[in-house]
């Protein structure tokens, strides 16, 4: 697990994401996904930059099929931003760090 990024599963999703007191970014990914691997260092850097302001999590779609199905994940990486237990924003695919920062700043 990357520093500052919490691995979550179907069982812990509600407690870690939906009941969080602060906004949460969920990175839906898989180990075989090239773009997922490419965006991971950016997510890890943002986790350091915004530590304490937003919770950063990763959910492996292969190991946890229930949560991705619930949120209609059809392509990875998909980053979903939650605030107050609700979806606040969603980004699919490889995007620039600036785009992620812009989205995070709107939430914190």
UniProtKB/TrEMBL annotation:
It comes from the Bacteria. This is Thioredoxin. PANTHER family: GEO12009P1 (PTHR45663:SF11). InterPro entries: Thioredoxin, Thioredoxin-like_sf, Thioredoxin_CS, Thioredoxin_domain. GO terms for cellular component: cytosol. The active site is at residues 33, 36. The keyword Signal does not apply. GO terms for biological process: cell redox homeostasis. The record marks 34-35 as: Contributes to redox potential value. GO terms for molecular function: protein-disulfide reductase activity. It comes from Desulfococcus multivorans DSM 2059. Residues 1-108 form the Thioredoxin domain. Disulfide bonds join 33-36. Keywords: Disulfide bond, Electron transport, Redox-active center, Transport. Pfam families: Thioredoxin. Belongs to the thioredoxin family. The record marks 27 as: Deprotonates C-terminal active site Cys.
């Amino acid at each position: 697990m990357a520093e500052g990024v919490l691995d979550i599963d179907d069982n812990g999703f509600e407690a870690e994401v939906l009941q969080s007191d602060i906004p949460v970014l969920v990175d839906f990914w898989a180990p075989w996904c090239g773009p997922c691997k490419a965006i991971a260092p950016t997510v890890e850097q943002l986790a350091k930059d915004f530590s304490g302001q937003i919770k950063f999590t990763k959910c492996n779609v292969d190991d946890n099929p229930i949560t991705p199905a619930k949120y209609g994940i059809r392509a990875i990486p998909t980053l979903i931003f939650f605030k107050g237990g609700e979806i606040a924003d969603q980004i699919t695919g490889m995007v620039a760090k600036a785009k992620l920062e812009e989205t995070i700043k709107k939430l914190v």
